[in-house]
Amino acid sequence: MKCLAIPALLAATARAFFTSPPDGHPNYTIGDELVLEWELDNPPAATFVLTLRAENLTAYAYIPGPFGSQIGLYDLRDVVLEEALPLANGSYTWKVEPSGGDATFIGPEVYYYLRGDWKVTGTPYSSGASTDYFHLVN
Ligand SMILES: *[C@@H]1O[C@H](CO)[C@@H](O)[C@H](O)[C@H]1NC(C)=O
Ligand SMILES: *[C@@H]1O[C@H](CO)[C@@H](O)[C@H](O)[C@H]1NC(C)=O
Ligand SMILES: *[C@@H]1O[C@H](CO)[C@@H](O)[C@H](O)[C@H]1NC(C)=O
Q1: pTM listed for this prediction
Q2: Which residues fall within 8 angstroms of residue 138, CB to CB, at 6 or more apart?
Q3: CA nearest ligand 2 atom 4, residue
Q4: Most buried residue, 1, 18, 21, 87, by CB count within 10 Å?
């Protein structure tokens, strides 16, 4: 039972982790300050890795998949913003900028979100959580 309890707890905490920015796919202007906030009653680790994820949802190519299907290839550009952000901080202000500083990688086709990943103290588990996606505009 103890083994089952840990992942269940993580699943619950992961969903509730980020309390801002709000859902609803807002557009953030480059140079804005996006305040990321999180909250956990029982912090599962001391620090977490904060990654900015960006994906162009229009495939740039297709390759043949099984049974005659086509598999889309997508431009994914992740950037680690913080290697060890203290969970105890509870918030982080990110000055909005396109992934890798590429000012063309913005607009409605490109889905951005922020992701936190941590190793759960005293267990072999890793866990994480993401914000809802948002877009960058000029
Ligand atoms: C974001 O901007 C696009 C135009 O680039 C617009 O169509 C969309 O409604 C905007 N989204 C929000 C949530 O304001
Ligand atoms: C997204 O990918 C499509 C297909 O490669 C490309 O035409 C488009 O310019 C890309 N958009 C951005 C914002 O990079
Ligand atoms: C975390 O909080 C400490 C204490 O307020 C602050 O010095 C530090 O810069 C914060 N770290 C980040 C990455 O925001």
Answers
A1: 0.85
A2: 29, 30, 103, 106
A3: 60
A4: 18
